[in-house]
Amino acid sequence: MLLSRNLRALAAIHLWIVYLLLEDLLGTCAEGDNQRLVASAPYQDIEITLEKPRVQAVAEPHTLRYDLMALSLEVPGLPQFLTLRYFDDEPFLPYKKNSSITDSQEPRIKDHLRAETWGRETDDLQEEEEQLKGMLAEITAQNGQNTDLHILQATFGCELQRNGSTRGFWKLGYDGQNFLTFDQKTLTWTVDGPSTQKNKTFWKTRAPRADLVKTFLDDICPAQLQRYLASLRNGLLNTGFPKVIVTFRNYPVGRITLTCRAFRLYTRVATLTWLQYRKPVQQKTFGSETILPSGDGTYQAWVSIRVLPGQESQFSCNLKHGNHNINEPAATEAPVYGARREQPPTSGVGSRVGKSLWSAMTTALVVISWTLSQKLMGPLLWFCSGGFCSFLQCW
Predict the structure, then answer these.
(1) For an engineered disulfide with 261, which of 163, 302, 316, 325 has Cβ 3.0 to 4.6 Å away?
(2) Which carries the bigger pLDDT value, residue 124 or residue 198?
């Protein structure tokens, strides 16, 4: 017997919430060119009080992104409205409807922003909720769908590129499908996928006003991004200097593996170099695609090299990171072969222990989600496209 559409939609919402929670903990599941579903936009006029940031080259690109979701009906155990904010793909400041808690997952950002700035950021979440709910209510009413469960999603933000310029992005999605994308060059909305002229007109007339979207993408978002970036720079006082640690491990094949690990990296660019008699023999430069998050807003990296027993004292590891140039010798005392020097514990999901725990949690949640989908909806096929994960039902 086929189950009702509402029951199927409810199961889909559960799976989508699981994805959001996993992404909140582990980061995005796929890299993309900011091709995420995006939510509603402000309808009322916005008074611009932010000064447009100066164009200044940066060592690496930075991104500020907002992911919003609204449900057309209340579902027990699920938030009717959810907002996630990401700085360089790391979540902070989650907001859920029916919850009085709006706290930053990146405390250094909150600590170094002025109180009035942080309050304004929090108040904006309430406005975004009302705007998104209003848009969803209008869409479902026009289509005669106000008795069914539907989802309206939004993704928007901006990227600071290496040459100092910025570009914005804004997308809207309905029931897991992209339907509107804002073109920042032409200042127009385009309907994704094939559609009749009537449907195109319907969606475009309900999209956020182009002038307000332009103001947000050109002025407000870049200014917020610059503030967050400055906040993290100031946060270096809390994290201290980068830390370099060298460990070794003896293998029975007559070689020793030296591993150089760098912690407390405050940007996603670093270079680790193995030196023998102070001359480089192996070098690796880490960027946004290869460096690892530590889970506390900083990053870490490592590089290994194999040497003959007795050569440890010839080697040292060099870290170049921002204005820091740190050298760490490979051996300050005679190693005990066959043993492994104890490594200091690391905090956050970037550590090995953290990764194993989160891996176990991921497996459990996937099994639960799969079981739920089998019982309520039949098999589901998950897919990741352009950084946004969704699913297809296999009938």
Answers:
(1) 302
(2) 198
